[in-house]
Automatic annotation (TrEMBL):
It comes from Avena sativa (Oat). It comes from the Eukaryota. This is Uncharacterized protein.
Length: 497
C-alpha cells in the first residue's frame, strides 16, 4: 500500500523537471532528430557542400548571425552587478530600551497625556522591537530637539558611516572619484542643499557626477533607487558605477501629540542607513547580479493613498498617520506585485499549476458549482532567501501568511526588526547582512527583497549571489550575531487591552 504514493512523488518530480526544463528537452530532441537525419552524410560530404557555397552566401550568413547575436544582447540589456554594500552600525550610546522610552514620556506631561503614554508602551511591547534599537541624539533631549541642525547632524552621522563602510570594503576597486552617478533617498526630511550634494561635498566626487535625490517615497525608496540605478546603468557606457544611499532622518519628525495613529512611527522607526555600489561591468569580487525589478503603485485607491499620510492633528502637531489597515493594504499591494513579478521568476511548473487552478476556477464558476481556491505558488522554488521590509510585526505576519512562508523564511526580517527597528528604506540591506553574517548565503543563491512604502508602493527585486561574504564578515551584526535568533514573546492582537 505504500508504493503508489511513492510512485506518485517520483512521477510528480519527473513532471516538474520536464516542465521546468521544457526548452532544454525540446532542444535535445531537435538536436537528436537532426543528428539522426544527417547521420548517413559523411563529414567529407559536409565539407564539400560548404566549400561549394558561393563566398557571398557564406559572408551573408556570418553577418546575419552576428546581427542576430547583437540584437539579442541589446534586447536583453546590460547586466547590473552589486559590487558591495555597507550599513550604519549604531553605537550603544544611542540605545533606547523600553524603560528609557517610558521615563522620557513621563518627562513630557504637557506634550503626551498618561493614556497616550500607556498606549504607546503597549504598542512598543507588541511591536517586535528589542531593547537595543537606537534613536538619534535629538530623541534623548527633553523635549526632543527637532531643529534643522539636529537633523543635519543625524544625517551626517548615519549617511557618512554607511558610505565610509562601503568604500572601506572596495578600497582596492572603487574609490569616491570613480563614482559616476549618485542616488540618495530620504522620505521626509529634505534640506537645502540636498543630501546628494552633501555626499558630493564630503567625498569630493567628480564635477561631472550625475546626482538624483529622491524624497516622499517612504520605506520603498531603497528598492526604487535600485530600479532607477538599473535603468541608468543599462543605457550607460560599460564600467559606469552608481552609488545608492538609503536612509530616513528622524530628528525633525518626532510627533508630540496624542493621536494614536500618529504615535505609531515614534514607536517603530529607528536610525539607520545603507550604501550600495552598483556597476554595469563584472567587477572583480562583485557580490551579486541584479535580476528582475518590479514596482507596483496602488495610489489610485483612496484608502491606499492615505494609508501612510503626513499631516497635522487637530492641535497643529505634524506627524505621520499610519492607517489601522496598513497590513491589509500591504497585502493587497503585494498581491498585485507578485501577479507581475511571479511570471518573471517562478519555474514553469509553478506557473503551470497557477494556470491550471485559474482554469479550474473559471470552469467551476461557469458551471455554477461554486468557487475554487487559486493555487498559491511556492516562491521558495525560485529563491533561497527572502528579505521582507521590517516595517512592523503586522506587516511581516501579513506577508508570511500571504506567501505561505515558514518562520525560518522570515527570520532575517523579524530579527532585523528586533535588533534595529524599522530603519525604513535601508532595512532590506540589514536583513541581507544578517543572512550573510549567519553564513547562509552561498554562491548561486537567489535573494528576493520586498519593500513597501507611502503611495502605496510595493517593490520586488531579485538578486543572484556571485561571491558570498567571507567568514567573520564585518557588518552591522558583527557584535551581536551570536545572540540571534531570539525567541519573540507571544502577543495579544488587541492593542487596546
Amino acid at each position: 500500500m505504500g508504493s503508489p504514493p511513492r510512485a506518485n512523488v517520483v512521477l510528480k518530480t519527473v513532471a516538474r523537471l520536464a516542465v521546468n526544463n521544457f526548452f532544454a528537452v525540446v532542444a535535445v530532441a531537435v538536436a537528436a532528430a537532426v543528428v539522426r537525419r544527417a547521420w548517413p552524410v559523411r563529414p567529407e560530404e559536409i565539407l564539400d557542400r560548404m566549400r561549394a557555397l558561393p563566398p557571398v552566401h557564406a559572408l551573408m550568413a556570418v553577418i546575419l548571425a552576428a546581427g542576430v547575436a547583437k540584437l539579442r544582447r541589446m534586447r536583453r540589456g546590460r547586466d547590473v552587478y552589486l559590487v558591495e554594500y555597507g550599513c550604519f552600525r549604531p553605537k550603544a550610546c544611542y540605545r533606547t530600551p523600553f524603560a528609557t522610552c517610558l521615563e522620557h514620556a513621563h518627562l513630557m506631561p504637557y506634550l503626551v497625556d498618561e493614556e497616550s503614554v500607556a498606549f504607546a508602551m503597549r504598542l512598543l511591547e507588541r511591536s517586535g522591537l528589542g531593547e537595543e534599537t537606537c534613536v538619534p541624539d535629538a530623541y534623548h533631549y527633553m523635549p526632543p530637539d527637532r531643529s534643522l541642525r539636529a537633523s543635519r547632524d543625524e544625517a551626517e552621522l548615519v549617511i557618512f558611516a554607511a558610505v565610509d563602510d562601503v568604500f572601506a570594503k572596495t578600497a582596492h576597486t572603487v574609490r569616491p572619484r570613480d563614482v559616476d552617478v549618485l542616488v540618495v533617498n530620504c522620505s521626509i526630511f529634505t534640506p537645502v542643499p540636498v543630501f546628494a550634494d552633501m555626499v558630493v561635498n564630503r567625498y569630493g566626487l567628480r564635477a561631472d557626477v550625475r546626482t538624483v535625490n529622491l524624497s516622499g517615497m517612504g520605506c520603498s525608496a531603497g528598492l526604487v533607487s535600485v530600479g532607477l540605478a538599473r535603468n541608468l546603468l543599462q543605457t550607460a557606457p560599460p564600467g559606469t558605477r552608481v552609488l545608492v544611499v538609503s536612509t530616513e532622518i528622524l530628528s525633525s519628525q518626532y510627533y508630540v501629540g496624542t493621536e494614536r495613529a500618529m504615535l505609531l512611527p515614534n514607536c517603530l522607526f529607528r536610525m539607520g542607513a545603507a550604501a550600495v555600489i552598483l556597476s554595469n561591468s563584472p567587477h572583480p569580487g562583485a557580490r551579486f547580479r541584479l535580476g528582475r525589478v518590479v514596482r507596483t503603485v496602488t495610489a489610485a485607491r483612496d484608502a491606499d493613498y492615505r494609508c501612510v499620510f503626513q499631516e497635522e492633528d487637530d492641535k497643529g502637531n505634524t506627524g505621520i498617520r499610519l492607517s489601522k489597515d496598513l497590513a491589509t493594504t500591504a497585502g493587497y499591494a503585494l498581491k498585485n506585485n507578485i501577479a507581475a513579478f511571479g511570471p518573471l521568476v517562478l519555474p514553469a511548473w509553478e506557473q503551470l499549476l497557477v494556470a491550471a487552478s485559474m482554469l479550474r476556477r473559471k470552469l467551476l464558476l461557469m458551471s455554477g458549482r461554486g468557487k475554487a481556491r487559486l493555487y498559491r505558488p511556492d516562491f521558495r522554488t525560485a529563491f533561497e532567501h527572502i528579505c521582507i521590509h521590517a516595517g512592523g510585526r503586522g506587516v511581516i505576519d501579513e506577508v508570511q501568511h500571504g506567501l505561505g512562508l515558514s518562520d525560518d523564511d522570515v527570520e532575517a526580517s523579524r530579527m532585523t526588526l528586533h535588533r534595529f527597528g524599522n530603519t525604513s528604506s535601508s532595512s532590506v540591506l540589514y536583513e541581507l547582512a544578517y543572512l550573510e553574517a549567519k553564513g547562509r548565503v552561498e554562491k548561486g543563491d537567489r535573494v528576493w527583497m520586498i519593500s513597501f512604502g507611502a503611495g502605496f508602493d510595493c517593490n520586488s527585486v531579485a538578486w543572484e549571489c556571485l561571491q558570498p561574504a567571507g567568514h567573520g564578515a564585518d557588518g552591522p551584526w558583527a557584535e551581536c550575531i551570536g545572540r540571534y535568533p531570539v525567541q519573540l514573546p507571544e502577543i495579544d492582537k488587541d492593542i487596546n487591552k
